[in-house]
Every structure is written in C-alpha cells, then in structure tokens.
Write a structure and sequence with these properties.
It comes from Rhodosorus marinus. The protein contains 15 helices and no strands. It is mostly helical. The chain has two domains: 151 residues, no CATH class; 110 residues, no CATH class.
Length: 326
Amino acid sequence: MFPLSEKSAVNLRGHYNLSNTTSFTDHEDASGSAVADFKLYTKFWGLQKYLSRAYEVEDSAVWEKVYESMQQIMEAFEGISVISTKDASGNEEKRAIKFLTDPQLFRLQLGDGFFRRQILVQFLILLRHLRIVQKPGEAFDSSKSHTESALNRRVLSLLDSIGPSGKTFGTGMTRAFYWEKHWIAWKANGCKPFDRAPVTFEASEQRRKRRRIGSEEEKTKKATKILLSYEDDDKGKPWALPSEGERTVDLKSWQNSAPTVELIQSQLKDDKDEEDPSLKRKNMKPYVWKTLRVLQRKNFLLVRRIAEERFDLDAILTADKSENDH
C-alpha cells in the first residue's frame, strides 16, 4: 500500500496513452466471408480512437460523428440478446480486458455481456469527460444540451440489463464518477497533502495548564453572573439569592446550600391557587431544573422517575413520597 501523499499515479499533466492503438480490418473481404454489417463493424472499432483520446471529441464536428456512432452501436446492443456472463458452474467469468477485432467474431461479441459492459463503461467515461470540459459554444451548445444526459441514461439502462447484478454494477459506476469529481478537484488544487500533524502530549498538557490559569476571584465572578442570569423574580428560584454584601463574603457556602424537599412541596402547594399558569413555579424552567437537581441528590433512583413523568414535579414528588412511605 502506498501512502496518501504518493503521487506516482496521479498523472498531474493529464497525458493520454497514445501508444495503445486498435488495429482492425478497414476494407470488406471480397470473398464474402466478412461480417454482415461491415459499416457497423468499422464504426464500432473506429470509435476506439476517440474513446482513447477524449479531448478530440470536444470539437463539435467530431462530437457529431461520435454521437452518431454511439447511437448505432447501442441500437445494435438493444437488438441482440445478451449472453450470460456466468460460466457453467454459475460463477462470474473473469477475463482479460483485451478483445480480438476479427470481423468473424463481431456478431458474437455484440451479444457477449462481458464485452458489452466494457464498451458501455468506455462510453460513460467519455460522457463524463465532456461534462467536465463543457463550455458555452463548444461541443454541447444550447441546441444539443439534452443529448449528453439522454445518452448517459441510455447507457446506464443497457448496463442494468446485463446480468448478473446489472443494476448494482450501474450504481457502482455512478458512485465511482462521484468520487472522481473530488479526485479531479484535489488534482486541480495541486494535490494538497492529506497528512495532518499528530497532536503531541506536550501540546495537550499546555492546553490543560492554560485552562487552569485564573484567580479564584475571577471564577467567583463568573459563577455569580451565571446564577444571576435567571429570572429576577425570587418566586422563580427554589432559594433566595443572598444580598449584595453577603454575595462576596459567603458565596461559596450559599452555592452549596439547597432547599429541603419539604420546602419545595410547600412552594408547589402554595401555587395551586395561582390562576396564571406562567406564574406557577413548576412551569418555570430555572425552578424545575434546580429542583430536579435537589431531588436527584436526595434519591438518585429518581433519575428514572424524572424521565417517566416527563419532568412533572407534582408527579415526581408524589411518587417519591409513596416510595418513602413503603
């Protein structure tokens, strides 16, 4: 396995392998032993030149020629039944991606599912390239904007018809092209490294030290600010705030103090005669939050009861009282 930073196969300049050419018979045999549709044969194998040099198809005139050939080839595929790609034992056949161009084999090759799949994938790659380089006024002008998408759908439909798992294969190709989009963007941005510097122990320790910095006075001021951010109405608090003078002297002991369950029950009982629901303590979020913390400290098993009763203080206190009675 190569590291992510390895660029030996990236092909940064986008060069094409022009040395790989396809040789085929370009004249019909006078003896009559040649393929029945020799025109289709020459168009089929002649198309390999443009499939291996996609940049030439960006020209409008060349695209017209290639588009016509692709349409005729797909019509031939649709008119011939597909030969299964499975062998006698029912397993998927494995073949080298290299095919003979003998005219006598052409008819059989059109019905070969494995052969057909390779050609259709080449079509998808070409169409993908044209979508990437598409510019106004070039290969896909306004009058032909629909041809590429329609052709792409037709190719995928033919791939789906090739068993076994034709639809799975087509979906896999679509996913591969989605990944390729990010691959191309990575190359266009100069192949920025994926590697990230590891977090050292010293750096983590330094952050912990910075968090510990700060005087007790600053921490006290911050805690006071949080506590005072609740509603100013003392009725919304389960215990009263100390006076301004006491706040700086005995804040720590006041923070640790908490009301008794009896006091909470008494406060909720006093609220039963209140006509306005918004003025009842059990409907005030700060009061409910602090009261639940008091109840959990008294009896940790109430944590389950809190969830069951949906934060209803009356129901929770009633359940707590009945459990204590038993």
